[in-house]
Every structure is written in C-alpha cells, then in structure tokens.
Write a structure and sequence with these properties.
By secondary structure, the chain is mainly alpha-helical. It has four helices and no strands. The longest helix has 15 residues, at 35-49.
Length: 87
C-alpha cells in the first residue's frame, strides 16, 4: 500500500473523513483540518507510519496545502528512533 493510500485510510478510519473526499488534490481546509485537528492527525501519523513530526501545527498548515502535499511530507520524514531498552 502506498503512502497516499495509507494516509487516506488513516484519515477515513480515525478521523471520520468521507473517503470520497480524500483525493490527492483535496485541500486540507476543505477537509475541515485546522491546526488543532492537525495535532491529532500528526500523532496518529507518527504512530501509523513510525515517523517523527517535529514541525509545529502552524508550520505544517503553512507547508502542507493538499492531501498529496501531506503524503509527500510524510514520505520525506525520517523514521522515529527506536526506544532504548531500560537497563
């Protein structure tokens, strides 16, 4: 499954966004994703994709305009570091 497909499935399942609206050119604002909702989505993306998002929600909203932008952003993120076992 591709990143855009995984992102679309995550948004549809976890955030109750109608799958038909989740097309690559869909603007985040048209999907009712504001900076507060972006915080929730960022946490879900980190968990689902095993990545770390360091940008603040306002930075994300300024940088990411469409679902395709969001998928490309996620693809460019480094993997989250693995937790170190306790000694």
């Amino acid at each position: 499954m591709t990143t855009p497909e995984r992102l679309r499935d995550l948004l549809a399942k976890e955030f109750a966004i109608e799958p038909a609206r989740l097309v690559p050119g869909a603007r985040l604002e048209d999907l009712d994703i504001d900076s507060l909702r972006m915080i929730e989505i960022a946490f879900a993306v980190e968990d689902a994709f095993g990545v770390k998002i360091d940008d603040e929600p306002a930075q994300l909203m300024a940088r990411i305009r469409t679902l395709a932008d969001f998928a490309a952003y996620v693809e460019g993120l480094p993997a989250a570091p693995s937790p170190q076992p306790a000694r």
